[in-house]
C-alpha cells in the first residue's frame, strides 16, 4: 500500500458522518478483571503516521476507561488492530425521461470509484489469547488526510463508547 493510500485509510474513517461501527464480545468474559493491556499486533496500513495515530487514539480510549498500557506480554489483555482498504465502484444510471413508473429516453450511467476502509480492533485475553471483544469500523476514505484523521477519531470513539461491556446477567 502506498503512503497516499495509507493516508486514505484514516480518511476512510473520517469522510462521512455515518461511520458504520459494530462491536461484539464474549458474554462469558469477565471484563472487570482486565485493567492492563499490551499491543500484540499494531495496524500496518503502509503509512506509519496513520498507524501511529490509530494506536494513539485506541490508547487514549482505553486510558479513559481506566486501562493502563504495560510491557509486551505483561497485560491482562492483548490488543490487535488491522486496517484494510478496498477499491469499490458504484454505478448510477440517470434517464432523460420518466412516465407512469417507467424510465424513458436515453440513459447515462456514471461510474464512481472510491476506496472503502475498515479498521478492526481485537481485545484478547492476555493469558489464553482467546478473543473477548472486537470492534469494526467501515468508512469511505477521503483524499484529505486531516478529514481522515478526524474520521478515525470518531470511529474509535464510537467503537469504545460502550466499552467495556456490562457483565452478562444470568
From TrEMBL:
Residues 21-165 form the DUF4136 domain. Residues 1-17 form the signal peptide. Keywords: Signal. InterPro entries: DUF4136 (IPR025411). The keyword Signal applies. It holds the Pfam family DUF4136. This is DUF4136 domain-containing protein.
Amino acid at each position: 500500500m502506498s503512503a497516499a493510500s495509507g493516508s486514505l485509510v484514516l480518511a476512510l474513517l473520517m469522510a462521512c458522518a455515518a461511520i458504520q461501527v459494530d462491536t461484539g464480545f464474549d458474554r462469558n468474559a469477565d471484563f472487570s478483571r482486565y485493567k492492563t493491556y499490551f499491543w500484540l499486533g499494531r495496524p500496518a496500513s503502509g503509512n506509519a503516521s496513520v498507524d501511529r495515530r490509530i494506536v494513539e487514539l485506541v490508547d487514549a480510549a482505553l486510558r479513559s476507561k481506566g486501562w493502563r498500557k504495560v510491557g509486551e506480554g505483561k497485560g491482562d489483555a492483548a490488543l490487535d488492530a488491522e486496517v484494510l482498504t478496498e477499491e469499490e465502484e458504484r454505478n448510477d444510471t440517470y434517464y432523460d425521461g420518466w412516465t407512469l413508473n417507467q424510465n424513458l429516453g436515453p440513459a447515462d450511467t456514471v461510474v464512481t470509484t472510491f476506496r472503502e476502509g475498515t479498521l478492526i480492533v481485537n481485545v484478547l485475553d492476555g493469558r489464553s489469547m482467546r478473543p473477548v471483544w472486537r470492534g469494526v469500523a467501515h468508512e469511505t476514505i477521503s483524499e484529505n488526510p486531516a478529514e481522515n484523521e478526524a474520521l478515525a477519531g470518531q470511529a474509535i470513539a464510537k467503537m469504545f463508547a460502550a466499552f467495556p461491556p456490562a457483565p452478562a446477567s444470568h
